[in-house]
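Quick question: what would this complex look like in 3D?
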Amino acid sequence: MRDFSYVRGNDVSAAVAAIAAGSGAKLIAGGTDLVNLLKEGIEQPGLLVDISRLPLTEIEAGPGGLRLGALARMSDVAAHPAVRRDYPGIARALELSASAQLRNMATMGGNLMQRTRCPYFRAEHDLPCNKRRPGSGCGALDAGQTRSAALFGASGACVATHPSDVAVMLAALDASVQIAGPHSGRAVPLVEFYRLPGDQPQRDTVLAFDEMIIGIDVPASPVAARSCYVKARERASYEFALVSAAVGVEVDGNVIRHARVALGGMAPRPLRVPAWERALAGVPAETEAVRAALRAAAEAAFADARPLPGSEFKVALAEQVVLRAVEEVIG
Amino acid sequence: MSAGITRADGAAKVTGEARYAADWQADGMVHAVLVTSAIPGGRILRADIAAASGTPGVVAVYTHRNAPRLNPVTAGVYPQTVLPLQDELVRYEGEPVAVVVAERLDQAQQAAKLVSIGYEPADFTVEMDTGTVRMPGPEAGFGRPADTSTGDMAAALAAADVVAGGEYRTAARHHSAIEPSATLAEYRDGTLTLHDATQGLFWTRDAVASALGLRPDDVRIVAQYTGGGFGSKGACRPHHLLAAAIARELGRPVRLVLTRAQSFTAHGYHPQTRQTVRLSAKRDGTLTAIRHSSRNPTAVYGADYVEMAAASSRFMYACPAIETSHRLTEIATVLPGPMRAPDDGPGMFALESAMDELAAALEMDPVDLRLRNDTSADPTSGKPFSGRELRACFTEGARRFGWRHTPPRSRRAGDDLIGWGAASAHMETFRFPASARATIDASGRVLIETAAQEIGGGTKTVLPQIAAAALGCPLSSVDLAMGDTTLPAAPVAAGSAQTLSTGSAVHAAARALLVKLASMALGEGRATADGVRLEGAEIIADGSHVRVADLLGRHGLGSLSAEETWAPAAADHAMHVWGAVFAEVRVDAALRLPRVSRITGVYSAGAIINPLTARSQMIGGITWGIGEALLERSVLDPALGRFVSKNLAGYLVPVNADVPDLDVSFVDEFDAAASPIGAKGIGELGATGVSAAIANAVYNATGIRVRDLPITPEALMP
């Protein structure tokens, strides 16, 4: 591990000032991902700004929505009664993430900022990986090791997916990311928070070098209250998704009025699927009707999909994962 | 003797008191970190060590240009044969190309990143389908032939009504012991000591001595605890030689701990297999012919490693004609090697899947098919089995599991398709010479000494049990010293042979001690320990009680020792262990995710010394089989010539949620032909038959026959 300087931010503006001043500075909170990246030399910051003691741990549920501080622990959010009652999909997505030990350490903001699990990015030394070392190529594409590659939004430079579970649920629920910067703050819808790789895959998000996440806002809605998250993975626990689905529905009588659908494991960012959201609106809240609606709109939903060798099965799997999630929320 | 004693070292392990290799310290110790090759083949043109050498705390940086010279290894076990840092050639990705030594570990790690190696790459392949296929060398296979043929195959094929089988594949897998290999080398006054994470004290000792030009007696290996090995820690490896040679050169103790990534190339891997099995049978299920061939990769250097996957077919079922063969393909990886359970692990997947396919073709209960072809003699050698209660295993297993044969796709619960599958388990019994010493002091306490290592199987617990049973004394009177080459020699902990072999030596030493005591108590001429036992501080021989203290005092002794070597007699029996495995799987009908929901295993494996530690061995083995069946797979990148993922996030092993309640039991047996304690090997038996039982259950659930391991969700897509 390369030597680095360390400072503790006493408040948000001091932390922002510190990362703005030091080139190659990184924020550290729970450290569950960053410490691994430091050890492998994947991240080599000259300065670590420790924000773990900033007062950004709030979990506040009000009539307008849910406010999650950037430093709220994953386990605390998952256990919060208001989250479990009014945003059950968020609790489920968190509980299906990582391990209990990691959830006790990891923060919500850090979860959004975790980096891809692509083995070429995570290798013990530099391999061809444009995300890790711009210009070095994409080892996964070169070798045809694309079983876990993105079907949407990839580029010739990078085919990695984003691994967060809760980001997928947050995207489905129209959450926004609250950002502090040196001059003013801004809010970015979660679906726009992650960048597509293009020819700059080293930049995962729209966050500028001198900005930090301070919180996540989730609007209250009937859809959020009837949300769930289904995760398909080979190992029964402690593994990232092959494909996951975040779904929320508003049901009126026996009819789905509104639906939100987002997929994980498919793209460099959570993938909203408007074709399925439209298809589900007005459909009876019954398995067979939902199945038919998803089937009928599947071609439209996957019109932009570009499966790579080995990842083709995710198309069919995604449809089944969404169906399962809808079944759970209407059941 | 059979008593469920909890682990003697359990408290030490959970409290952290147990000292593993990397826990040892030595005065003046420095840390060594390996730099490994980034390419799978070629030559080193340039090795720039200036930046690393200038890093604070760095003591030395070695490359092939300045590393200590080593002698070719002519003793012990060193499968790599190629010595590290002796020439500019690169033979596999992950081969050591430099070593950085520093005062602190972090300094050595950082400096290792600054070593810059320039290569001239050579052409290579890591693909099984492009390399040349050839016979294994004569040294491969531990004395077992690559090919066998018994009976009249042409006649047997002509007599068959049905043929079943196909091509089966198992994935390359890595041992992934929780403790990475580690060693602390100290060279003082002409004597080298390694505190080492090893399964094979003497294999390592003799190889290190040979490479460094030392007498074996001048090398001492200490291994109080080894944190899992599964075959990865049996032999001497390049890092041992480097740590030892550098410790001698620097005159300072050197600690070298492999990283997790290095663990994927430092001690081999279980090679992928391509197997073909064809079973021919009569309409009633009687086998007429078995043809089983297997091919695995070996390295372009080193001793051939052959995975004897077809060997199970030589012994498993009565059959008039059996042909087996093994072939190798050279690829540019580190030399593969054995992993729990070598040979029978992948081999029984293929054979027992084919048996299930034959049962399906015959519309027969797969359990009945196996019982129809049961045999009491080895069909290849003709020798009777010393013990084979396979029928009892299936009968009892079927009862415990509630087995009932049904066609595929006939059980469902909610979203899950439920399937049942059965398979035989099998492993050859390996037996090795072993020595032990038993010493009694005036208080009546007995010390058992043997060099055997504890790798997690429960050796520290069962050896005192064996001694106490042989002496007729309480377990609390017995102490144990082990894990040190200065003690009486014991074999490698491999081939599931440790309890059988070292336990027999402990038994012999304890009985010899009783004979000595009885002879002293009753006068000379005592030949056996019959009618003699130890009770507290007294020896009881033929009904007379003598205080041990008085007896020793009368002869002017402070203590009395007996040392014995047990060596397996030439066998007129074929020795194997057996089992029946029943698995239930649930496959989500929509998501196609297979999960194991219960497993019953019943085993025929000789005397069970300790039912608790034996059960732990079997549930560990079954868990290993679940990983083989559903998760574990190391993928090679054909462009870079490396394993794609060298960490436990990318190499999936089962977690608790993947492992259901496991029902394990043993047939009550005592195999006197195998060993004086009646025991045979169990450690790897549990890892056989499991993947086939799971694959057969997946077929029963879905109607889809998967012949490639691990079974992936995409393989189960309709």
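Answer marked as accepted. The CA atoms of residues 520 and 555 of chain B lie 9 Å apart.
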